[in-house]
């Protein structure tokens, strides 16, 4: 029982005294779970779940069926978890909206990672920016297998004009977990740079999201 543990080792007390960053993944998950099950403390339950799923990210991405089949979990916990995930996404989105000069913003990358890392299929979108490089919005434009034939410059241009954007950051995900750009990714990038140049809109970057990784074309001198 956690009540018998020294106060400084209990997750809640440790968070209050040392900050959330001091907690392990299991301790953070234990605070979310709140209670253990018969014969198993909440921290031990959290460790079991992490061992079973492999990571916190995998727990977030689990289907309701996979999540609820574990002892000690249920629909109510699944709903709570999804609410926590959505709140974190909205927080990051608000942070991104307040930033300037987003070509080097870690907040932008973190927001896009949170949006796309759990997708099981490929998604291609654009971050729309005004003339001061502040975020106007993020639009998902294409889904499925992304290649040079599946991304239509006309659709991208229409959305840019509709939002009166002055610049864009292109983004898509690799569900495979490999962030390295393919030849198709490079062709798409060049086609869109050329199409958007005709309406005097600059492509600041093309980001590839693969789980927790983020590859930047701009940072690798590929624009």
From TrEMBL:
Coiled coil: none
UniProt name for this protein: JAB domain-containing protein
Protein's GO biological process: proteolysis
Signal peptide, first to last residue: none
UniProt record similarity statement: Belongs to the UPF0758 family.
Sequence ranges assigned to domain MPN in this UniProt record: 101-223
Database matches in Gene3D superfamilies: 5' to 3' exonuclease, C-terminal subdomain (1.10.150.20), Cytidine Deaminase, domain 2 (3.40.140.10)
Pfam families: RadC (PF04002), UPF0758_N (PF20582)
GO molecular function list: metal ion binding; metallopeptidase activity
Organism: Thalassotalea euphylliae
